[in-house]
Every structure is written in structure tokens, then in C-alpha cells.
């Protein structure tokens, strides 16, 4: 039966993690020390206050505030003394959205780095990006994902839904997932779209594929015509490309596209 720990001990543990400087952390507890590094943004704040503390078994949620800044710190502790995992989230600035939305569509062979690029975009942007490693969402029986041609309406619907999210004023990133470019043209009508094409040395693709267990063998080289029919705003060889640098380049293109003056429709004088 799990041991019940007094709530005050959780609060004390949190305060100890925040207050302990790098020099004072015990070397014998290197795991806790490494996790505590994530609390750096909360240190040296004399006005930091714990707004709430919630406990669910070994999970502890702490909301802390300093003026207008607020954080949620979530950690796991079996006894109120040791921290086994910890995550820190800072309340972001207000995002009002971008008129008409914007999307990045990434196409390329399996293991070329599409997912890595999308995740880098999400992490490196100050704005909220919603990214899809594959162009579907929700839960659906895998058979309909394996044999897409048996339910084309489902997959076109996924693209329509993702495009609707962008059209509502959001930033969206999605991997092409083998769908033809005209499907995206139709679904994303009226949305600013940046199309990115990735390619990679075949030997490097094969090496990356061997390190994955989420794809079938040979998938990386099974689509030699993956770029047929596509026109790109940026094309990159990812054989020796850093996904963070590429993400910055993509975000620059999106920023220019979003901030360029929009040409108003000519008035109807007929």
C-alpha cells in the first residue's frame, strides 16, 4: 500500500529544489541535481509564491507565481524526499492568432528528417505550432491507415480538419505522408502555405532506418518519385543538415509570408 506523505513535506521538497544552488546540491544525488537544473528560471525570486499544490499518488503538481509570471512544476516522488522525474512549464504570452492562418507542409522520403524538422519548428518558435508527424489525428483502426485507398474520404477529411485548424488563425505543420500535392492545394485553399522538400543520401537513409522500429524495412528507398509534382519554397539535403538551423530558416520564410502586405481584392465596379 502506498505510503501517505504529509502535504507539507511536498511543499518543503519543492522549496528545497528551488532554493538549492548548483554548488550546494549533493553529489550523491546526481539524478535529483540534474532534474533540479530545470528549475533555474524560478531561482533567486524573493517574491515567488506557491499558489497551489495538488497530490495524486506519487505525482505532485505545484503552481508557483512571481508577479505576472507563473509556472506549473510537475514532479514524481515516492516518499516526499526523492524526485524521480520533473517537468517545468511557464505560462506563455497571449497568442491572438494570425489572420488566415499559416501552414508548413514537409515532404520527403521516410527517415529524411520530416518529424525532426516539425518538432524543431514547434520548439524553436515563440508562437504555438501544432504539428502532425503524419497527416491524421484522433484514433482510427490501423487497417484504414495501412490501406488508405480503401477510405480516401477519411484521409481527405484529415487534411480538411488540419487545414481548418490553420484557417482558424493557427500555425500548423504537417508531413505530407505520401499524399499528392493537389490534395493539400485543395484542402489549404486560402491558407498561407510553405512547402518544404527534404532529400537525403540513400546510404544515410538506410542507416537511419536501421535505427528505427516504427517503420518497415526498405521504406526509405521505396518511393523514388516522392517529389514528383511538388513545387517547393525551400528544398534541403538533410544528409548532414542540422534540423534546428533548418527550422530557423523555415520560420523566417513563414514570418515573411505572414507579415508581407496583403493585396486587397479590387472593388467590383460592374
What does this structure look like?
The protein starts with 6 loop residues before the first helix and ends in an 11-residue tail after the last helix. The chain is α/β, with parallel strands linked by helices and 270 residues long. The mean pLDDT is 89. It is 31% helix and 21% strand. The protein folds into 2 domains: 7-90, Nuclear Transport Factor 2, Chain: A, CATH 3.10.450; 102-259, Rossmann fold (3-Layer(aba) Sandwich), CATH 3.40.50.300. α3 (114-124) crosses α8 (243-259). The protein has a 5-stranded parallel β-sheet, with helices on both faces. The chain has a 4-stranded antiparallel β-sheet with strand order 1-2-3-4, with helices on one face.
Annotated CATH architecture of the largest domain: 3-Layer(aba) Sandwich
Within CATH, the superfamily of the largest domain carries the name: P-loop containing nucleotide triphosphate hydrolases
The total strand number stands at: 9
In whole angstroms, the N-to-C terminal distance is 80 Å
Question: What sort of overall outline do the alpha carbons produce when their principal axes are compared?
Answer: globular
The averaged pLDDT comes out at 89
User: Largest sheet, described in full?
Assistant: 5 strands, parallel
- Gyration radius over CA: 24 Å
What would the CATH topology of the largest domain be?
Rossmann fold
Amino acid at each position: 500500500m502506498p505510503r501517505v506523505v504529509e502535504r507539507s513535506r511536498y511543499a518543503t521538497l519543492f522549496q528545497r529544489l528551488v532554493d538549492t544552488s548548483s554548488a550546494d546540491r549533493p553529489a550523491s544525488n546526481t539524478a535529483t541535481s540534474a532534474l533540479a537544473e530545470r528549475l533555474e528560471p524560478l531561482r533567486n525570486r524573493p517574491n515567488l509564491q506557491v499558489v497551489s499544490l495538488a497530490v495524486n499518488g506519487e505525482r505532485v503538481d505545484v503552481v508557483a507565481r512571481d508577479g505576472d509570471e507563473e509556472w506549473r512544476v510537475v514532479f514524481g516522488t515516492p516518499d516526499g524526499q526523492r524526485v524521480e522525474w520533473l517537468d517545468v512549464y511557464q505560462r506563455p504570452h497571449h497568442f491572438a492568432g494570425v489572420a488566415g492562418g499559416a501552414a508548413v507542409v514537409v515532404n520527403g522520403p521516410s527517415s529524411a528528417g520530416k518529424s525532426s524538422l516539425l518538432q524543431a519548428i514547434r520548439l524553436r518558435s515563440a508562437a504555438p505550432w501544432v504539428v502532425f508527424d503524419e497527416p491524421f489525428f484522433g484514433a482510427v483502426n490501423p487497417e484504414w491507415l495501412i490501406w488508405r485507398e480503401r477510405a480516401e474520404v477519411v484521409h481527405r477529411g484529415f487534411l480538411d480538419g488540419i487545414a481548418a485548424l490553420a484557417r482558424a488563425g493557427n500555425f500548423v505543420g504537417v508531413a505530407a505522408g505520401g499524399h499528392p500535392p493537389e490534395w493539400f492545394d485543395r484542402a489549404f485553399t486560402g491558407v498561407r502555405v510553405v512547402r518544404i522538400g527534404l532529400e537525403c543520401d540513400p546510404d544515410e537513409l538506410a542507416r537511419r532506418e536501421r535505427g528505427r522500429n516504427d517503420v518497415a524495412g526498405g521504406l526509405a528507398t521505396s518511393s523514388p518519385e516522392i517529389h514528383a509534382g511538388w513545387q517547393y519554397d525551400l528544398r534541403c539535403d538533410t544528409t548532414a543538415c542540422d534540423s534546428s538551423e533548418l527550422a530557423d530558416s523555415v520560420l523566417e520564410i513563414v514570418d515573411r509570408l505572414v507579415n508581407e502586405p496583403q493585396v486587397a481584392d479590387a472593388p467590383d465596379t460592374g
